[in-house]
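In the current project phase, the collection of sequences with tokenised folds has grown. One resulting record follows, to show the layout:
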Amino acid sequence: MLQANRPQETSLELVAGAVRLLRGASIPEKHRYGGVTMKVIIVGIGRVGSSLANMLDREGHQVTVVDRDALALQRRLSPDFSGTKLVGNAMDQDVLERAGIRQADVLLTITEGDNRNIMIAQIAKVVFGVPKVMARIVDPLRAQAYRELGIESIDQTTLVSEHMRRVVLGETASELAAQREE
């Protein structure tokens, strides 16, 4: 369970949520079942991006990671990572072209900046027509606005807050019930 004093769990929850969405209904059926691999581009190789890249790579998908920091690509990814590593600014269409965006089934943008993530998501969706695009957003108000514009987003603030609320209320309800029985 997620505990407030274990912030790394937050990243794992986001990764798990993104994987669930990747397996969701809006991905073409040929990529959901039968062992066919997806071509996935992940922009931003922090804790969440690297965890997701490693996970999808182990599952056999064709993963390309893009980050402005060459050291992040070296230190965050598993030594067994077999995907493509690309240093560059993903807001640059040439960098996205080199990452293989024209053949991509999915683009996930998980950098530290909401504005950056939404810009990259819009380029992927509008300019290149990537079928599944998702952006990590920290600000819940922005996340809702982007959803209304048709850009799927993971709102980490609300996601983590709701999960922690359920944990706290679940534990509190159990404790109250146990005290009443005594």
User: Anything to note?
Assistant: The longest strand covers residues 62-67. Strands lie at 39-43, 62-67, 84-87, 106-109, 132-137, 152-155.
